[in-house]
Write a structure and sequence with these properties.
This protein is an alpha+beta fold. It is built from 11 helices and 20 strands.
Length: about 400
């Protein structure tokens, strides 16, 4: 029997649904729950999927990428270009992909406008199998989502969502959701509490294992779903608090960097290829975990140290043009002591000053190669207040003056 990767639930029709995977003579089958009709998509970049209706059942036949097939699943969602996306109430989401396997997970855009009006809400529900949703308006449902699903179970999504009531049943999902509202608002009821989430409330953390109900107006928001195993070493098994599903996070300098980072990445997400998307997702997760480490009650753990190191690196990268960047300011942004910051870097064979200098000079080299800035402007963009200091540090690092290096790069 082959070993199947995790599955994702997509909608279908009939009383039950099945998925079949084949590799030579090996077969495996999984059946979705009865009740609301759903199709289970087994996902893997090495498999292709063909959906067909068989009596009351929807069957998804999974074939290895070397065989010919017209429907392909990659990542936790269908990961191919949307110009061939089709939605059908009896077949769910299908995709014409030719014969070549997908190049790897990328950001995917799903818009309910691609479906007939009566099927739009079903299309939207298929993206969030861990919630039970109902529209709050009679007009045709209009929402869109841009998503990236990683192999470790994490997901990044930027959504424009119509007015919707959502119930999160207890223990249906074991993920922690990191949320940022950009517009609109939502009322969250959980464990006898009632909270309002809007664009002015900053980041909040949702424990999707806890029961809750959200009553959302039309809104735009960014969500990062993380496996509990990644968050628990920092905030414990109940990161929102005992009996609570929602926790508002205080604003911090590192949180402001994360907010800008999330907006920038999701603004340009659809232009990223698979490699760039993977790097973007990794940087988002590192920065998010670094933000959560600031609120960790377990101050001295390897996981907290790693998160603080990643956060310090991201903070330095975001402030390379600041000539007065100091250890004190970095420690203040991370809400930790200077001595701890020194210790974390020393454990990795680094000093804070040398690491910042290397990043500044690497940026200078990049600007010299890719722009026509004069050397003085390049120095300022790298946090050097005067050109001689920049030139001296550059020569010490690379063995050439900035001008000599630019000339060498131009000849290459």
């Amino acid at each position: 029997m082959i070993r199947l990767p995790p599955s994702v639930v997509l909608p279908g029709a009939g009383l039950a649904s099945s998925a079949v995977a084949e590799n030579g003579n090996d077969r495996a089958r999984t059946t979705a729950r009865k009740g609301r009709a759903r199709v289970v998509f087994i996902w893997s970049p090495l498999w292709r999927c063909r959906l067909r209706k068989c009596g009351r059942h929807n069957v998804a036949t999974m074939r290895h990428a070397r065989s010919r097939s017209v429907i392909h699943a990659s990542g936790a969602l269908v990961q191919t270009s949307l110009d061939r996306l089709k939605w059908h109430p009896s077949r769910g989401i299908t995709m014409e992909t030719g014969t070549a396997p997908a190049p790897g997970p990328r950001f995917t855009l799903v818009d309910t406008a691609s479906a007939p009006p009566r099927e739009r809400f079903d299309l939207w529900c298929s993206l969030f199998p861990f919630t039970d949703m109902a529209p709050l308006r009679r007009t045709p449902y209009q929402s869109s989502a841009m998503l990236y699903a990683d192999q470790d179970g994490s997901m990044l999504a930027r959504i424009h969502m119509d007015a919707t009531l959502s119930d999160f049943p207890e223990a249906r999902s074991d993920q922690i959701m990191f949320n940022l509202f950009l517009g609109g608002r939502s009322l969250v009821r959980h464990g006898g509490h009632e909270d309002v989430v809007d664009a002015g409330s900053g980041f909040n953390l949702m424990d999707c294992r806890m029961p809750m109900r959200t009553i959302a107006q039309q809104h735009e928001s960014i969500h990062l779903l993380l496996p509990r195993a990644q968050v628990a070493p920092l905030l414990g098994q109940l990161p929102a608090g005992d009996g609570r599903a929602l926790r508002h996070l205080p604003q911090t300098p590192l949180g402001q960097i994360l907010q800008s980072h999330l907006i920038t990445i999701t603004d340009h997400a659809m232009a990223l290829d698979a490699k760039a998307a993977a790097h973007a997702m990794a940087s988002v997760k590192q920065l998010a975990l670094a933000c959560l480490a600031q609120f960790s009650p377990n101050d001295d753990t390897p996981e907290t140290d790693t998160a603080l190191f990643d956060g310090a690196c991201r903070y330095i990268e975001a402030r390379l043009d600041d000539p007065v960047l100091s250890v004190e300011r970095i420690a203040q942004a991370l809400q930790c002591s200077r001595s701890r910051l020194y210790r974390i870097f020393a454990a990795r064979g680094l000093t804070i000053a040398s690491h910042a200098r290397s990043l500044r000079l690497a940026r200078g080299r990049h600007l010299l190669r890719t722009t026509r800035m004069n050397t003085g402007d390049v120095a300022q963009h790298c946090g050097y207040g005067d050109l001689p200091a920049f030139s001296k540090a550059f020569r010490r690092e690379y063995g050439l003056s900035p001008g000599e290096w630019r000339n060498e790069a131009a000849r290459d």
